[in-house]
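pasting for ref. prot 1 ->
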Amino acid sequence: MKLKHVVAAAWLSCAVASSAWAANGEFSARHVQVNGRDVAYQVFVPKHWSPDREWPVVLFLHGSGERGSDNQLQLKQGLPPWLKTHGEDFPAVVVAPQAPDDTIWDGAQEQAALAAMEDSIKAYHGDRSRLYVTGLSMGGYGAWQFAVDHPGLFAAAAVICGAIRAPSDMPELVVHGPPQDGNPYQWVAERVKPMPVWIFHGEVDDQVAPSEARNMYAALLKVGDEVRYTQFPGVNHGSWVPAYATAELWPWMFGHRNAH
């Protein structure tokens, strides 16, 4: 066999093996270059993934407690733990970037997260008409920020215990853009429309006020957007547990697509 054929066969064998290893219904580490900086992230590839078709892609944004540089902490809360026990037939690729300590989901971290999503779209045959964003707490703020900054990118969003105005104990955590005067909720609603949104919040959340979620829900209704709001009675800040366990969430989310 000629050398170039040997090399080609070896490359094909490695590619097939790599794809088979990645499509194990678990998270695995990947890296992407962003402005000359190596950015690590985690990606979940469905157990039954194959290159024969395009796949939905979900971008998951973690909360402030999972920040760091170990590329592991972002798997501790929210969607990743749910996938460990319920991901056997999950029909989408899930991208889980990690924000460094003392940062939020804007600027460089927003750019890095979107670069990770783009890397996964290319590697795992992502469907650009079925890109979705979800986040909890700080990641909920991030989901609003990404939707404002990139209108039309996501086919739907699930925002959990997030908001657009900063909580008193974390003044830097705020969605950037709304003017100081006027109605910030309406400003955001007008910019994310027509992206469908499902908002989840705990009734007794003492970190991010439930009124913030209700205000965004009302603003989205006012501009005519498709929006759902679920408030969990007696639940504090950890509303991501019942939110990701909501049976209707994923059929609802994957039922939307952009006309790209």
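and prot 2 ->
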Amino acid sequence: MNLSQVDVLAIVVSDRNAELFAVFCRDNGLYLYDKSTDSLKQLAIVDGIVLLDKPIKLYFHTPYIGVTENFGLNAAVINLNTGATQLFRREDYHADVSSYSMAFIERQGRTLLVHQTQWNRLDITDLQDGRLLTPREISIEEIEPEKRLPGTAPCYNRLNYMDYFHSQLLVSPQFGRILDNGWMWAPVDNIRCIEVETFLTGYEFSTIAVEYTNGYNWDRPCAFLDENRFVIAVDRPSEDYYDQDELDAYLPRTLEFYQFSDIDLAEKRLQPYKIVNSGLFSHNEYGEISGELYYDRDYKTLIAIGDKGVVIVDTDGNKLYDNPHMLMVEQKVEGKVKNPLFQWIYQPDWHIFYCYHADKKMVEVVKYQQLVINDSVTL
């Protein structure tokens, strides 16, 4: 069996083998695809995933493969060694606009899963025994509502309750920290820093807000540079929210850099230590950017994939390479957009770009060095 015999919905490369891919298909089958032999092996039928007409996302952390309905309610984790499947689910509250994201982390020799269970609740589960490591009660209750004067705001008693919609998660290289790329009402996007050890006892209120140029644009491009540093790609300020003096004073910027060690615990805020301007992504009519951002620690470069194709810069924002032909694009079959959004993905550990081509039923892989050499660019 090979890829020509299945209807692929999502694909991700292995964290242990650059020739091995996890593939999820319309028959609810999870497969392993070996590119070196062009062979496909079924691992499991994952009946818990039901929204096959919406984007599916895969995660590969040997010996586990995770599957989520990206804008749905269901998720699963499959153990490659045993074949066992664990099913997970989150609450249905604005799930259609909040990514159902998961993160694998290693702690004290155990593999843990960080996952959403409610719109404002993250949990951590030990995958080896299924034990929930973050049990808690969450509640909100108005204080003496009968005494509140008309036109005044209510006051609440909150127990582990934060008005925050969890969305895309990004884990640090050594698994100690997480970026939560979510949002709050009105709505406004809000990235929060999570220290895993602190979160195990402090939960949502132990997280720290990141200060950046935000708006109505969550799940924005961001990347860890190392265990302490990360970078966020930011929007252009909208004239609808800033007056001309503020816009004139605004420094041109597209990337903001941060260090966990700079967190102000008293204010529960983190401000950037460096701001650079580099044209990685285009802005839409609202000044928003979209795409994916990766950091290659060996080459010490940032790789952006979006509507400008592939753009590579150093950490000072200097452009080193661009290829406008490698776009993040929707592939179509018989005139219709085929689900999900198959796009170029970069895997920094293997230094490869890869993309599943639905029309050709094949995975294309391009090495970092091969790409830049072929285009006569030296880094």
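The chain has a mean pLDDT of 91.
Residues 236 and 287 are 5 Å apart (CA to CA).
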